[in-house]
Amino acid sequence: MSKVKTKQIVISMVAILFALIMLSPFYIGIIYSFKTKQEITLTGLSLPTHFDFQNYVAVLEDGSFFKGMLNSIYTTIPSVILLMIICPMASYVFARNKKRIYNVLYSLFLVAMLIPYQSVLLPIYADMRDWGMLNTFAGNVFVKVGFQLSLSILICTGFVKGIPRDLEEAAYIDGMGYFGTFWRIVFPLMKSVLISILIINALFAWNDFQLSTVTLISEEVQTLPQLLYRYFGVHSVDLNQAFAAFNLAMLPLIILYLLLQKYITDGVMAGSVKG
Amino acid sequence: MIRNLKNSSKRKLCNVLFLLPACIVFAVFVLVPFLQGIPLSLYQWDGYSDTRTFVGLSNYLQVFKDPNITEVVGNTLFFTLLYLVGCNVIGLLLALLVKKTSKLNAVLRTIFFMPFVLSMILASFMFTYIYSDVFYALLGIKSFLGNVNYVNPAIAAIAIWKDSGYCMIIYIASLQMVPNEYYEAARIEGCSAIKSFFNITMPLIVPAFTANITLILAWGMQAFDYQMAATGGGPGHASETVGMYIYKNIFVYHNAGYGQAIGILLTAGLAVLTILLTSYLRRKEVEM
């Protein structure tokens, strides 16, 4: 028995060691962001003696950071909401119908996951320009939604297949129509999977760089990753201020993650079962 | 009977209505651009002017004569290999360490997955500072990102740090499905822990390998953000990937038709690799 216990302690120690390694970049980022340049040279990696918010103030005073964050919000929220409505609808049809045509369509959505972004950058850029959607949030949102459909539909369809049909049949007999059955019975039952796709799509939309690079070209509409790229690719910024900017940029997602982490891992697992 | 018929055609109509929004967005913003990309690869075009010249397959032929291609393909494959092996080995190791359900393990899993929520751009910039300032101040090592020999492994390390937690989640789900009796039986038969790992665990978690390997392969072959942010492809072209090379040809060198042709070849290459790997791994799957 004690041998088993020792083994478990060793395993936990190794795991904790790994956790410290994984956390170290965050640790460095946090302590450096609260130090002045001189303090970093003097004190290195030790905890700051006092919390100095000057670096954060400097980042926020520069209006462009705030602007980038707003642009990210404006493009992320509509993408996420749209996906949370249209994917469950499509998934409901795919999960409840066995006809060949639905299977073919479903497979088409799945195969699209193999398309590398680089093969569509030029056509998307050209189309956006021709359709007058270049540099518009709508254009960016639709492109992001398009490329996130497959995974969300995959996750939702798997989930709906697991919901017993009895409830729907009962609702149908009670005289609820197709729409009523879906919106009032099935959709509410999908709560957990909806939160999963919410967070997975929020991560994707917030963090996307490549699709945004070709749809949002002018500086006023660029999102946070683009702003970071433009800023840090050109300027050499002192690392204490750079880390303050990084921490601010990651904060919304870290909070969302810590609140909804159960759902994100559920979504990741559901998304990994292909076929 | 008539009522039923009416119901079923009404049902069909409702099905179509429910599919329509997703299908329209998919068709207009994914399918159409993808299909348009194929003819675009047959033109010589700068990407913005109204004139483009049809050149047939010459963009494709040029790929094989392009001296840069070997380097960018080599970089991409090297990066992908490191990223693939690193994420899967570390992801599986982490999964084995924290697969049991406990309070501590829940916290550890949260920590291991946390880097995944950052954007690739953000993770890369964080590491450029860590490599250049922190490593130098603490260890006196110059940034690996400036060294031709270490730049690809250094970028792969960023990607591995960010994504091993993702692989871990999939491995944990798979490990938890292996019935405990199998291990019990192996232990009674006198099987060592290592032996039972290779003979029981590994064959039963092949579906997780399939999922993780195909996913990281696809992400690695399309690598763009990490390199753009960390090095811009440098030093020289030492970390330039196929993804960057396509982007640069289209939007920087104004050689859009050529970039598009490489994009199509990348799509085909990735599809072939994915199908080969999947069918190989599927054959290794065993029924539980």
TrEMBL record, chain A:
Q: How does it sit in the membrane?
A: Multi-pass membrane protein
Looking at the UniProt entry, the stretches that span the membrane are 9-34, 73-95, 104-125, 137-160, 181-206, 242-260
Q: What SUPFAM superfamilies does this protein map onto?
A: MetI-like
As for subcellular location, the record says: Cell membrane
Q: Which keywords label this protein?
A: Cell membrane, Membrane, Transmembrane, Transmembrane helix, Transport
Q: Which CDD domains match?
A: TM_PBP2
Q: Which residues form the ABC transmembrane type-1 domain?
A: 69-260
Question: Family, per the entry?
Answer: Belongs to the binding-protein-dependent transport system permease family.
Q: What is this protein called?
A: Carbohydrate ABC transporter permease
| Organism whose genome encodes this protein | Blautia ammoniilytica
